[in-house]
Amino acid sequence: MLRLWGRMSSINVRKVVWAVQELGLPSVQRTDAGGQFGIVREPRFLALNPNGLVPLVEDEDTGAVLWESNTIVRYLCARHSLGNLYPEDLPARFVAEQWMDWQQTTLNPAGRDAFLQWIRTPAAQRNDALIAASVAVTEPLMALLDAHLARQPFMAGERFTMADIPVACEIHRWWGLPQERPARPHLERWYLAVSSRTGAIGVLDQPLS
Question: What domains lie within the chain, and their CATH numbers?
Fold first, then answer.
């Protein structure tokens, strides 16, 4: 049994749900947590994740308790798809790792303010300057991705790997904002391919909230 805590409105929870579905794991129990669902400040939850954030995963088979989304994706792919979603070749593995880290440390912070203003801030309270600043730093990163994907079909090379999951979740969030965006043909080709995967059902076809 794999236990997962987290609400589907969280981009980080969506990554883990996609990984679970991509791997076809049969025994997963997800509990809505965080935001309006609470739970994350309860003593039992904090004992497992002192950060009080989602997602949180508890793997009863191995005893692993993990709470960073990209780490959870890596763990699940390494355990259940070694040599496929989790590349076994060391250089290939760390190419995938670097893009996962880049999503979390570079792409996500760049787009955060625009997302928070458009989706989680009432219209009368929105700060247009924050949105503009977020767009200004995010669109060059989108151009970088488009150029990268002009050279290869997937984030880490010739096939779909764990690296595609967090980046695609970020693109889903950015392209879901009600704002104009430049055409990115290579990024659009890749996103269509990954979002059409069975594992992405219920993840990349959901509205932002």
Answer: 2-80 (3.40.30.10), 90-198 (1.20.1050.10)
